[in-house]
């Protein structure tokens, strides 16, 4: 029997002196491009299908004689003007829901904007001291559970006017989650960042803008998202009692006039507007924090 000679294993030659070897790079997975068809299938189609199913269920449930709520077809027939033309103006009080939403948003902008500035500053100060946090946290936790409308009599007695009273209700409702989340974010700043700031001899203003805000941004914008949602809830509730041309007073006036279909349309406007506000604050947070804030 013939014996086959084994070939010696070839050993790769050593690289010349001074040459740097490059490690093999793993192939990166291909990223799927967001094509229009993919966006339609994964993002738009599912909520549209769910909405259609809910409308069909609503239509069937409201078609019986004993139902006290209008069906979707009744909403379309009786409140078509509010749906297709949200910016009509027929008088000082007879205006479209688009104008009413903008009026309410103006008050939210004042109240929430003030709460954002004051809340971030107070939270940044409290987050620097564990003793101050222990002293103020129980008070904040108690005040944040007070319903928005409970503040309305106090604000009316203080300001003697419905407009600043509504803005104050928004402010006092939205400020607590902003303060609490900002303080928690400041407390979570790594000690290494503080050491770097001490080595660079950053003053308080430089530390605030260069270290504190970027590090605590995810916490801050989490509080801002909660705050803007509470602001929108507060203004709708406050306008039901203070009057005016806002979306909240429109719902109360429609209830007194037994216009249930108008109330349903207004609820859709309120929900869509709140969704847009939440997504807007979240998008700003991702831009400011470079993707770390959700």
TrEMBL record:
Which Gene3D superfamilies does the UniProt entry name for this protein? MetI-like
* Top-level taxonomic group: Bacteria
Q: Where is the protein found, in the record's own terms? A: Cell inner membrane; Cell membrane
Q: Which residues cross the membrane?
A: 44-61, 108-127, 166-186, 230-252, 264-284
Which keywords annotate this record? Cell inner membrane, Cell membrane, Ion transport, Membrane, Transmembrane, Transmembrane helix, Transport
InterPro entries associated with the record: MetI-like (IPR000515), MetI-like_sf (IPR035906), NtrB (IPR005889)
Residue span(s) of domain ABC transmembrane type-1: 101-281
Q: Pfam families, from UniProt?
A: BPD_transp_1
Topology relative to the membrane: Multi-pass membrane protein
- Sequence similarity: Belongs to the binding-protein-dependent transport system permease family.
Q: Which NCBIfam families match?
A: ntrB (TIGR01183)
**Protein name per the record:** Nitrate ABC transporter permease
The organism that produces this protein has a lineage beginning with: Bacteria, Pseudomonadati, Pseudomonadota, Alphaproteobacteria, Rhodobacterales
The gene that this protein is the product of is: ntrB
């Amino acid at each position: 029997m013939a014996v086959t000679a084994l070939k010696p294993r070839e050993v790769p030659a050593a690289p010349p002196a001074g040459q740097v070897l490059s490690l093999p790079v793993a192939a990166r997975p291909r990223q799927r491009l967001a094509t229009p068809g993919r966006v339609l299938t994964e993002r738009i189609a599912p909520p549209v299908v769910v909405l259609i199913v809910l409308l069909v269920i609503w239509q069937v449930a409201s078609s019986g004689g004993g139902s006290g709520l209008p069906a979707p077809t009744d909403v379309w027939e009786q409140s078509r003007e509010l749906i297709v033309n949200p910016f009509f103006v027929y008088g000082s009080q007879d205006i479209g829901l688009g104008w009413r939403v903008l009026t309410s948003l103006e008050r939210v902008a004042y109240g929430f904007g003030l709460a954002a500035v004051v809340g971030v500053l107070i939270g940044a100060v409290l987050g620097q001291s564990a003793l101050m946090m222990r002293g103020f946290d129980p008070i904040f936790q108690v005040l944040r559970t007070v319903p928005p409308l409970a503040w309305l009599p106090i604000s009316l007695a203080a300001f003697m006017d419905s407009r600043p009273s509504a803005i104050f209700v928004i402010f006092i409702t939205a400020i607590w989650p902003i303060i609490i989340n900002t303080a928690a974010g400041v407390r979570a700043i790594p000690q290494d960042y503080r050491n770097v700031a001490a080595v660079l001899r950053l003053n308080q203003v430089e530390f605030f803008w260069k270290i504190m805000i970027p590090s605590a941004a995810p916490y801050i914008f989490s509080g801002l998202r909660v705050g803007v949602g509470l602001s929108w809830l507060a203004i709708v509730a406050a306008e039901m009692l203070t009057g005016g041309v806002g979306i909240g007073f429109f719902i109360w006036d429609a209830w007194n006039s037994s216009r249930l279909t108008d109330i349903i349309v207004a609820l859709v406007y309120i929900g869509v507007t709140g969704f847009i506000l939440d997504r807007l604050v979240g998008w700003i947070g991702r831009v400011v924090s470079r993707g770390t804030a959700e």
